[in-house]
Amino acid sequence: MYRLYCNYLPGKSSSEKHSMMNTKTLLTLGWITSATFILGTIFWGYQLDSYNAVSQTVSEIGKKGSPLYSQWQVFSIGVGFLILIFAFGIISYAKKRSKSLVPGIFMLVYGLSQVAMGSFPSPHPLHNIFGLSMIIGYFTPLVFALTWRKYPETSFRKISFLSFLLILIGIILNLSPAFAPELYPLEYYGLVQRLLLFTFYGYLAYLSFRFTSKKFY
Predict the structure, then answer these.
(1) pLDDT tens digits along 82-116
(2) What is the pLDDT of residues 115-149, one digit of tens each?
């Protein structure tokens, strides 16, 4: 199948064809990572009888003392490495099309933050510090919209802007307990966090499908 696909890349040398296929494989990890994280958080949450996804954060699934401490740590770090690999795929894709590498770098930062958070589970002080560093990675959709202005479809920029708007709302709501604790009932904090996380991971899946589609690859 791999050879068959390569044969349908006219005007490309053998090494270029293999390079393109390798990049496409890395980009496929976007939707795989998205599905893994979203379904994984739901699955692991259901394994804890006392866990409430409406009010509790995903980090509390594997906090110190949790029966799923080790499993969640491996899961979180694994997701982080998948994001890192996906980020390298974005950078490779950008290089081949003379696009800005900056969005891929922002995605790399997010992946590093995820690995670091997984390495220092809650309530370790570094867990929250690396959690805040994720804000840099959350700007990835905006950076895409601003730096890839000549991407074939204007819908790409629109979806990137919309995704960032939702993510920005999620960031503000997630940080609001520190400066506006009465903004919304904190018993819904788990849902608020998932609005942020699932929107970002949904955007990863969007990038993956868009960049690997026949029209754009």
Answers:
(1) 999 999 999 999 999 999 999 999 999 999 999 99
(2) 999 999 999 999 999 999 999 999 999 999 999 98
Q: How far is CA 137 from the centre of its chain?
A: 8
Measured between alpha carbons, how far is 151 from 132 in angstroms, rounded to an integer? Answer: 30
Helix-helix angle 69-96:14-46, to 10 degrees: 150
Burial of 109 (0-12, 13-18, 19+ CB in 10 A): buried
Residue 114 CA neighbour count, 13 Å, CB half: 28
- Nearest partner of 137 among 159, 162, 115, judged by Cα: 115
- 217 Cβ contact list (under 8 Å, min separation 6): 20, 24, 211
Q: How far apart are the first and last CA of the chain?
A: 17
What is the distance between the alpha carbons of residues 146 and 115, in angstroms, rounded to a whole number? 27
